[in-house]
């Protein structure tokens, strides 16, 4: 007993001595880049550079990011994807959820400690912005972790996709009456570390810890390294028991880290391949190269091989992973609910995404600020606005979320503030989840992650414990679906938040500086939180009897009329040219 009492203060002394503060000063600015070698365009960088820096800290460190919005014409914010922000929910970053977006010329500071080791990333959480470049890896090193000492070096490989057009241009075409089927813009290329010529120089007989993240707007990628096996040890910040894989499937936003042991001979180099999952694309454009190739280089004087042809993708199934801590399935949920995914047209003719018939529309007041100022009404979902799709959990609820995918597409669902247990995932086209179906069996020590793929027409069961008071979004991480409303808002223990959280003045000043409300219900009403008049709502439904097909027909006649005008214009201009000649 005595020695323990003596040992404790020494331990805490050691840990405070080691933890440090890591500070970044980020000025968000436009710059130019041509990452696929085909097209130079304006991109959003940091401090005049792109790719943006990797945030690199150690477990236990405090991270301080001083953010300045140097964009003359756009809002911004930063989200640190995968960090729980337990105790610092106001540092999570999504605009209109935990803060106001920074307008041009505004600044604010993110400041929090990080106690989770692993592979993360950070990105703007203003609708549709990160595909324009503001996305980078965030690594939390763990020198005392369970796999420490099992590798010689750490390496980062970030997958992504790339568009030649800027997001606002693509978005105005995507969410419009001219695109009634909701076909998502297809990327122009795939990238690895934001380039198409990624070298990975290795020494023979060594083991590398390869940390990977897919920072894509849309495309999932199949990934493999020819002639080598990957030993997975982490997914989305959760250590797993070691699992061997020849090919890994990365949805947008997912991370894996794996151990890679190199060969003992240096006579050959090997292709590293990422291949976009073309099932996601409604139409594959002519000439699209879905692949990006890097090289594992043992000897730079030897040739760099082209990848060999693969006729079938057989990726590793993450459902089979086991968390290293062996955590059991959470039993007896105290809050169970389901969300059904659907796509449909609204009265403006555009194609939206829905959970249970609602498509997300941001509130007038950031949801967290509503939670903090609403007293006892904070437990009443209505005050957060109909179209934020709110769910309120009590502190320490065991939450069960059933997702039914009533859409023929694959969706990577992400939850802020938590990793969830993937208790069950059905095959393709299984239909609605049915708890009484005897073929449904739950994983007993389920894999945990923060982003998980649901199969087309399938369902899944997620569980987690509400041990993190805050306001957390649940959404599809395909940025197009963020923009078409596939987002729900989870308000967790708002009563606890009210006594523990204080919003720093510089965060409130971001709202004040733009005359945006920082208190009140979703409609900005500070007097009566139950009066939602004036709240932001989605467009009205289509008039009865009007179908998506009807819109297609309508659009075709409009397009035909346009073609007619174009033909006349063409003749007209030819006439002009002839006259000039
Ligand atoms: Cu990468 Cu809402 O998050």
TrEMBL record:
Membrane topology label: Single-pass type I membrane protein
Chief site of localization: membrane
Cell location: Cell membrane
GO BP of this protein: cellular response to iron ion starvation; reductive iron assimilation
TM region positions: 551-571
Family matches, as PROSITE patterns: MULTICOPPER_OXIDASE1, MULTICOPPER_OXIDASE2
Cellular component per GO, a single term: high-affinity iron permease complex
Family, similarity comment: Belongs to the multicopper oxidase family.
PANTHER family: IRON TRANSPORT MULTICOPPER OXIDASE FET3 (PTHR11709:SF361), MULTI-COPPER OXIDASE (PTHR11709)
The protein, known as: Iron transport multicopper oxidase FET3
Species this protein is from: Drechslerella stenobrocha 248
């Amino acid at each position: 007993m005595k020695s323990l009492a003596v040992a404790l203060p020494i331990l805490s002394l050691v840990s405070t001595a080691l933890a440090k503060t890591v500070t970044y000063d980020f000025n968000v600015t436009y710059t130019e880049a041509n990452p696929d070698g085909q097209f130079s365009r304006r991109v959003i960088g940091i401090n005049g550079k792109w790719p943006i820096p990797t945030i690199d800290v150690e477990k236990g460190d405090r991270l301080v990011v001083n953010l300045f919005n140097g964009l003359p014409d756009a809002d911004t914010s930063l989200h640190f994807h995968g960090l729980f922000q337990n105790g610092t929910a106001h540092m999570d970053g999504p605009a209109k959820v935990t803060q106001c977006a920074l307008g041009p010329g505004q600044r604010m500071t993110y400041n929090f400690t990080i106690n989770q080791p692993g592979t993360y990333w950070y990105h703007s959480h203003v609708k549709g912005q990160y595909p324009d470049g503001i996305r980078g890896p965030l690594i939390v090193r763990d020198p005392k972790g369970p796999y420490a000492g099992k590798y010689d070096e750490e390496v980062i490989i970030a997958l992504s996709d790339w568009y030649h057009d800027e997001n606002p241009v693509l978005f105005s075409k995507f969410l419009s009456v001219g695109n009634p089927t909701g076909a998502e813009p297809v990327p122009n290329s795939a990238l690895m570390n934001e380039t198409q010529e990624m070298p990975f120089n290795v020494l023979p007989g060594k083991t590398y810890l390869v940390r990977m993240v897919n920072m894509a707007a849309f495309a999932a990628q199949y990934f493999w390294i020819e002639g080598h096996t990957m030993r997975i040890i982490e997914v989305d910040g959760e250590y797993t028991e070691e699992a061997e894989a020849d090919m890994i499937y990365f949805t947008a936003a997912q991370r894996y880290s794996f151990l890679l042991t190199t060969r003992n001979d240096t006579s050959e180099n090997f292709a590293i391949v990422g291949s976009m999952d073309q099932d996601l694309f409604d139409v594959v454009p002519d000439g699209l190269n879905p692949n990006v190739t890097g090289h594992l280089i043992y000897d730079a004087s030897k040739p760099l091989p082209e990848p060999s042809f693969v006729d079938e993708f057989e990726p590793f199934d993450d459902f089979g992973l086991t968390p290293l801590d062996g955590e059991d399935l959470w039993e007896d949920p105290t809050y169970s609910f389901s969300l059904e995914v659907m796509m449909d047209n609204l009265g403006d003719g555009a194609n939206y995404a829905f959970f249970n018939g609602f498509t997300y529309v941001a509130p007038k007041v950031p949801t967290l600020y509503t939670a903090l100022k609403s007293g006892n009404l904070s437990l009443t979902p209505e005050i957060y606005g109909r179209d934020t799709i709110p769910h309120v959990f009590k502190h320490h609820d065991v939450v069960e979320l059933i997702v039914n995918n009533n859409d023929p597409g694959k969706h990577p669902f992400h939850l802020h503030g938590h990793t969830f247990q993937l208790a069950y995932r059905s095959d393709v086209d299984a239909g609605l989840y049915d708890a009484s179906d005897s073929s449904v069996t739950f994983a007993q020590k389920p894999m945990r992650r923060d982003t998980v793929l649901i199969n087309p027409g399938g369902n899944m069961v997620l569980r987690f414990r509400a041990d993190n008071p805050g306001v957390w979004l649940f959404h599809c991480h395909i940025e197009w679906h963020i923009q078409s409303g596939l987002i729900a808002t989870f308000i967790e223990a708002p009563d606890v938040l009210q006594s523990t959280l204080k919003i720093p003045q510089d965060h409130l000043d971001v709202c004040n500086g733009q005359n945006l409300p920082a208190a009140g219900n979703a409609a900005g009403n500070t007097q009566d939180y139950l009066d939602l008049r004036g709240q932001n709502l989605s467009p009205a439904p289509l008039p009865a009897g009007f179908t998506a097909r009807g819109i297609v027909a309508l659009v075709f006649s409009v397009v035909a009329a346009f073609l007619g005008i174009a033909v006349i214009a063409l003749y007209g201009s030819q006439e002009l040219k002839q006259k000039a000649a």
